[in-house]
Amino acid sequence: xxxxxxxxxxxxxxxxxxxxxxxxxxxxxxxxxxxxxxxxxxxxxxxxxxxxxxxxxxxxxxxxxxxxxxxxxxxxxxxxxxxxxxxxxxxxxxxxxxxxxxxxxxxxxxxxxxxxxxxxxxxxxxxxxxxxxxxxxxxxxxxxxxxxxxxxxxxxxxxxxxxxxxxx
Length: 168
Known about the structure:
- The protein is α+β, with helices and mostly antiparallel strands.
- Helices cover 29% and strands 26% of the residues.
- It has a 3-stranded antiparallel sheet, with helices on one face.
- It is globular and about 45 Å long.
């Protein structure tokens, strides 16, 4: 039997011509849910982003995300990430600039407030390699202990929410 998927766009936002889309996809055969963020260039959609209604934009976005055909279930789950990578992921997702910058002073505060250790940095560096995140996270670079960049949020399935939290 061919897999059948149902998609629901939760929200979307434009960041310098990158159109980020947060959506859930349900595998109708298994009832498995994936909560992901993907991004497209606004030129990828088949309408004028700056002139069209939200309804037309969403219709165009649905066409794009449906082409994924369930690939969302194959990306790593946030629940399986190390504590520090989850923290950086959440910071990038919550940031209006889609970025996270932690300087050495802030790192010391995080160690004090959250109990992070230098071993967490080692774990983060291993996860950067494991999940091929070199374009999305750097450590000990340009005066920052950690930098997370836009696009990081599209590397994972945020499976921490329960299925019931998504309206159907």
